[in-house]
Specification:
303 residues, mainly alpha, 13 helices, 76% helix
């Protein structure tokens, strides 16, 4: 299969990649709207409940250890999305959250370097510095809609995403959809427990579930099936047919969709400083992703 991967995305595959990142980007608006009905950790628990059920009865368990799936489920379910939902619930605007969470790229690189005992390359240091400058711009403009705590929480969510990426890579070549579905079950106990302890106990949980409007439940299912099932399955399908370098740039559009959707649907303002911060963070991501290829290109030109 790998030897026949295409180096070009046909139009249908390109549109599929754009659909995936559009779902992932606009999802931040869905999160914000659904949090009007559900407290954040209960919302995360419901997301993974329906990512786990009923698919777990129809998809075979992936050939990976229970420990690995548990680590992934807790890192992604609790550390990434539980904390992300908590941050978006009044502590950071969804558009900025879609941008700040991309710090996961650098955490993923850091963990890979730590385990492989590799040294930080100059272009990676530059990429991190540029993106961190963008985060600094955001930190200097905290207000009622974006707090320093919210920024810190989303960075922690990015760290957890990086942990999840590292754990999933150690799982080897597996069916990613099966992996995500089965690992989702390990997200549920800690998420429901946190909600029960900190979000008002069973009475508040049952009240939120019973009184939630259909629009909020649509948000839950959009999280479960649109983001988790469709997003991961379609992404894995694209990766199975094209080199990672061909597909990998697509998620750079997630913050653009996220900030654009937040501005359109939630009237989130886009002042110059926010656009500058977005430009710096995305520029850092681009340097990290494309510099090795650009360096080869410039070397060829200089010969």
């Amino acid at each position: 299969m790998n030897s026949h991967k295409s180096n070009q995305l046909p139009l249908s595959h390109l549109l599929l990649a754009l659909a995936i990142v559009a779902v992932w980007g606009t999802n931040f608006v869905v999160i914000k709207l659904s949090l009007d009905a559900f407290p954040p950790f209960l919302f995360a628990a419901l997301r993974y409940t329906f990512a786990f059920l009923p698919l777990v009865f129809f998809i075979p368990k992936p050939k990976v250890s229970w420990t690995n799936m548990c680590a992934y489920g807790v890192a992604i379910g609790v550390g990434q999305f539980g904390i992300l939902f908590f941050a978006i619930d009044g502590r950071i605007s969804p558009g900025l959250a879609s941008l700040v969470v991309q710090t996961q790229v650098f955490f993923t690189i850091g963990f890979a370097m730590f385990f492989a005992k590799e040294r930080l390359k100059l272009y990676q240091a530059v990429a991190v510095s540029v993106s961190m400058t963008g985060l600094g711009v955001i930190a200097l403009h905290t207000d009622a809609s974006t707090t320093f705590l919210g920024i810190a929480l989303v960075v922690i969510a990015g760290l957890s995403w990086g942990i999840g990426n590292t754990v999933s890579r150690r799982a080897g070549s597996i069916n990613m959809l099966s992996y995500v579905v089965w690992a989702s079950g390990f997200s549920l106990p800690p998420l429901f427990l946190i909600s029960w302890i900190f979000e008002g106990g069973w009475q508040q949980m049952s009240s939120s579930i019973g009184s939630a409007p259909m629009s909020a439940w649509a948000g839950v299912f959009w999280q479960s099936w649109g983001n988790t099932v469709f997003g991961y399955a379609a992404w894995a399908w694209l990766l199975s047919r094209h080199p990672a370098a061909v597909v990998a740039p697509a998620p750079l559009l997630v913050p653009i969709f996220g900030m654009g959707a937040s501005a359109y649907f939630l009237s989130e303002p886009l002042p110059l400083w926010k656009l500058l911060a977005a430009g710096l963070v995305i520029a850092g991501l681009i340097v990290n992703l494309f510099w090795p290829n650009l360096e080869k290109f410039f070397r060829k030109l200089s010969r």
